[in-house]
Write a structure and sequence with these properties.
This protein has helices at residues 14-22, 28-44, 51-61, 64-67, 72-89, 93-109, 114-122, 147-161, 165-168, 200-216, 220-223, 285-304, 342-345, 372-392, 416-434, 447-458, 470-474, 478-487, 492-496, 523-545, and strands at residues 143-145, 175-177, 180-184, 191-197, 232-234, 242-244, 260-266, 307-309, 351-352, 355-356, 362-364, 463-468, 505-512. By secondary structure, the chain is α+β, with helices and mostly antiparallel strands. The chain folds into four domains: 15-124; 139-162 and 170-266; 285-462 and 518-543, no CATH class; 465-508, no CATH class. Strands 1, 2, 3, 4, 5, 6 and 7 form a seven-stranded mixed β-sheet that branches. The longest helix has 23 residues, at 523-545. It starts with 13 loop residues before the first helix and ends in a 12-residue tail after the last helix.
């Protein structure tokens, strides 16, 4: 019966629908129509859902002849949507929990494409989020100031605010770190950072980063340290952005072409990366894992409040084509494509000992049209890749191809037991942060198998090649073309022998995870990321519903 107490026009009686589904249609098209009819009925009659309906949908989702069809992914999404409709609308708690358990188990253990469809449908559960607006700023309000004066005034400002022993320690001078200048004020006082840009687009990103810092410092979580060491922005004369009026002083090394700058105070560990030497040594396994887990917790907490870091590490499917692809070559992990230069992407992650960094990459959840499910997965994938790079950085010179053309084999650098522990710990901490404190479930997945496959693919540099296509060459000037080749290891004389637009050029720029324009060579990692992201979304969804929070009930057989 419908909500109005009568049979809805155009729908067969509920008993007839179930009876027809009990007899699995022999033809795929007929099965597709049946699940569509079921979903229409459930949408109009949520109170009619029962345990048998859940079992019937599961039977359709696991029927192997259906899974072998070309349109199987779309069929599985349609069938899994029936379970989601039950979870969202059915008033019966036991039936809802049954549907939840079935969909979660299929996301964890189902065959392809059932597993992917179940993860994506579960990850699409609606969450009550209130993303903030993107911080805005006006470049015209920048304070004109010379770099020497800016550095002096910032140092004086910091000294005037310090008390006790920290105020007595004299600065050792400004040091260059990439496009930033830093001043170490001592262990308790942290560091001052002047971050620069050379053009207006970069200045807008600086202003956005300062805007996010200001916004986050309004939260009690930030003041209590529950989001890590969020940098504290600094202003002069009421201005947050500075327009540099003169070149840098000769006694300060750093970015010579800088025209814009912002300033902030950060903890001393701000420039200590979890997978890079700090103080001359690679962090211990204990320090690495603690740093990884804290940042997983912080990113989960931020995402739960509608603020997403879009680039914990820069991930690309194809860097060489990013200027002519509509997606900019950015990696979309649900598609399972080849991951470009994975080890290079991990070199300087946007999180470290002090917490999350490079806040210009923050954005309100959903602002770019990417689902929260995919953004959560991008966070988890980034942590897994950084974990793999940690082992490779025990011997950073061992990468690429050997003299005989065979791939470097660095599997001996990995610790499988520790890798397994790191994968589990990252999921648990991210889940805790994203669900506002719930303990992570024990899904029972085979993380040792995942760790073995990660070592097999991340430890051997099988995929080193990318191809510079003729259309990509035609987008360059002759000067850009030569510079592109030399930047990727070509000697100048060899690069000069090529003529732009004449032929495809094979570049050895890896290691990559997968061959050029092919699938990822580590699909097990994508499956894990999909399932883990779906569990995070599901856990948060039921936590918000409260009445269904906590452990799901055992699913009836």
């Amino acid at each position: 019966m419908s909500r109005q107490g009568r049979e809805p026009t155009g729908f067969r009686p509920w008993g007839r629908i179930k009876d027809e589904m009990r007899r699995l249609p022999s033809d795929f098209a007929g099965a597709y129509l049946k699940v569509q009819e079921l979903n229409r009925f459930l949408l109009e009659n949520p109170g009619s859902a029962d345990h048998e309906a859940v079992r019937l949908v599961r039977r359709f989702l696991t029927h192997r002849p259906y899974l072998r069809q070309r349109q199987a992914l779309f069929f599985c999404k349609e069938a899994a949507t029936g379970l989601r409709l039950i979870m969202e609308n059915c008033p019966g708690r036991d039936v809802v929990e049954h549907a939840r358990r079935v969909l979660e188990s299929l996301a964890l253990e189902g065959e392809e494409p059932c597993q992917r469809a179940s993860s994506e449908v579960l990850g699409g559960l609606p969450l009550a989020l209130s993303p903030p607006d993107m911080p805005l700023g006006d470049l015209s309000e920048a304070l004109p100031i010379s770099l020497p004066e800016l550095l002096k005034r910032l140092a004086d400002l910091a000294a005037s605010r310090e008390r006790g022993p920290a105020a007595l320690s004299r600065p050792q001078g400004w040091l260059s770190r990439g496009r930033s200048l830093i001043l170490d004020r001592g262990a308790d006082a942290g560091i001052l950072v002047v971050k620069t840009a050379s053009e207006e687009q970069g200045a807008k990103l600086l202003l956005r980063e300062i805007g996010w810092m200001r916004f986050l410092w309004r939260w009690e979580d930030t003041r209590l340290g529950r989001l890590g060491g969020i940098p504290l922005p600094l202003k002069l004369d009421g201005r947050w952005l500075f327009r540099l009026t003169k070149r840098r002083p000769s006694d300060v090394s750093g970015p010579g072409k800088a025209e814009w700058a912002v300033a902030f105070r950060a903890p001393r560990g701000y420039f200590c990366y979890p997978n890079q030497p700090c103080g001359g040594r690679l962090p211990s396994k204990a320090v690495f894992l603690e740093t990884l887990c804290r940042n997983a917790l912080y990113l989960g907490r931020l995402a739960s409040r509608g603020v997403v870091h879009t680039a914990p590490i820069p991930l690309f499917h194809n860097r060489v084509q990013q200027h002519r692809r509509n997606d900019g070559g950015v990696y979309r992990w649900p598609r399972g494509g080849r991951l470009d230069r994975w080890l290079e992407s991990c070199d300087f992650p946007n999180f470290g000992r002090s917490g999350i960094r490079d806040l210009e990459h923050l954005e309100p959840a959903g602002a770019s049209g990417v689902s929260l499910y995919e953004q959560v997965g991008m966070h988890l994938l980034s942590f897994l890749l950084v974990t793999g790079s940690y082992f490779r950085n025990r011997d950073p010179g061992r990468r690429g191809l050997q003299a005989d053309g065979s791939p470097v084999d660095a599997r001996h650098l990995f610790d499988r037991a520790f890798l397994t522990k790191a994968v589990r710990s990252v999921f648990e901490k991210y889940y805790e942060g994203f669900t506002e404190g719930l303990p992570a479930p024990e899904p029972g997945w085979d993380l040792e198998h995942l760790a073995r496959r990660m070592i097999e693919e991340m430890g051997v540099d099988r995929h080193m090649e990318e191809i510079l296509r003729v259309p990509d060459q035609e987008q360059m000037t002759d000067e850009e073309f030569i510079r592109f080749l030399t930047d990727r290891g070509f000697p100048s004389d060899e690069a000069g022998r090529y003529r732009r637009g004449r032929e495809e050029i094979v570049l050895r720029t890896g290691p990559h995870l997968g061959a050029f324009n092919d699938r990822i060579s580590l699909p097990e990692m994508i499956r894990f990321v999909g399932a883990a992201s779906a569990l995070c979304i599901s856990g948060r969804y039921f936590h918000q519903r409260r009445g269904f929070a906590g452990e799901a009930l055992p699913a009836p057989a």
